[in-house]
Amino acid sequence: MPKNLAVLSYPNSNNLGDFIQSIAAQKWAGEATPSALNRDQLKDYEGPAVNLIMNGWFMEPPYQWPPSEMITPFFISFHLNPTAKKGMLNPQGVSYFKKHQPIGCRDLHTAQLLSSYGIKTFYSGCLTLTLNRDDFLKKNPTRTGIYVISPMERLNPENDPTPKGRLQKALQQLKKGRKQKRYERATKRLELFLEKQQSPVYFRSQLRDPKTLSEQGRIAAAEKQLKDIANAALVITSRIHTALPAVAFGTPVLFLSDGLEHPNQKSRFEGMETLFPILTSEELHLWEGKFPEPSKNHLLLVERMEKERAAFFNGLK
């Protein structure tokens, strides 16, 4: 393993999915104990030279791109969101990607976008697909219960960010009623589906408020969520980093796409339809009385990621 290995951290995030990605990167590092770099401050990094596993969603502040010259990036399971395209794919950003290509992309959208700029890419899938169920459970575990984790949260208008401008606030208010009705109908369909199940049902949220829970507390909550997923007989979610660990653990999963129609959201799971069923709440009735068969399509992605890791680490020795 190379020295000075680092993984991304998310000290201000309210999404346990970010911490789950960091946990996956740390475990992927093997026996090494990596340092942690704040994803949103990579340009400002002035510490010792590090080799950074560059996985995850990029990026809220695109002005923080490209990273410091003290960082050697290993691009794997990388997602460039459409919201950051302009800020990250300027001439300087494109040059940086080409310097460190090929870029292992978490989704087909990112791979196709970067390729359109002449950047070499490959579809890696997500690093969370390399997680091992045995790391989160005691020996001889028996699966039990349906875990419903953050379904359709983005459809709930109560979770919408507060607009800054007066016009934006007025437009949001006009849309709120219609969105609320969609959310209520979708939630009712899910409730009816769950009422027909024989297994116990457990509800969880993937969101934690950084104002009330420390970073270490959110990391612990992410580890607890992984244990729940590993233990589950079925997971129902609208969160990628609940669904993908479920695939890694061989846990059946149904992914609800209600509220994820916008390109900024939809781009994030392009290519994942081979890993789990992606459906709307209107299609839940098709799964009454049965659970989906866990996919093994991720194993080829995991194999490719392992080869890329070996090549990167060996090149640093």
Provide structural commentary.
This protein folds into two domains: 5-131 and 299-316; 133-297, Rossmann fold, CATH 3.40.50. 36% of the residues lie in helices and 16% in strands. It contains nine helices and eleven strands. A five-stranded parallel beta sheet has the order 8-7-9-10-11, covered by helices on one side. It has a four-stranded parallel beta sheet with strand order 2-1-3-4. Helix 5 (166-195) links the parallel strand 7 (146-149) and strand 8 (201-204). Helix 1 packs across helix 6 (215-231) and helix 6 (215-231) packs across helix 7. The mean pLDDT is 92.
Keywords:
317 residues, alpha/beta, Rossmann fold, 5-stranded parallel beta sheet, 4-stranded parallel beta sheet, 36% helix, globular
- Describe the largest sheet: 5 strands, parallel
CATH architecture descriptor name of the largest domain: 3-Layer(aba) Sandwich
Number of domains: 2
How many beta-strand elements? 11
Task: Bin the strand percentage.
Answer: 15-25%
What's the helical proportion of residues? 25-40%
N→C terminal distance: 8 Å
Overall pLDDT metric: 92
Specify the structural class.
Answer: alpha/beta
- Cα shape: globular
Order of helices and strands: EHEEEHHEHEEHEHEHEHEH
Number of helices: 9
Reading off the top of the CATH hierarchy, the class of the largest domain is best stated as Alpha Beta
Unreliable stretches (pLDDT < 50, length at least 5) are none
Radius of gyration: 20 Å
Query: What topology, given as strand order, has the largest sheet?
Result: 8-7-9-10-11
CATH topology of the largest domain: Rossmann fold
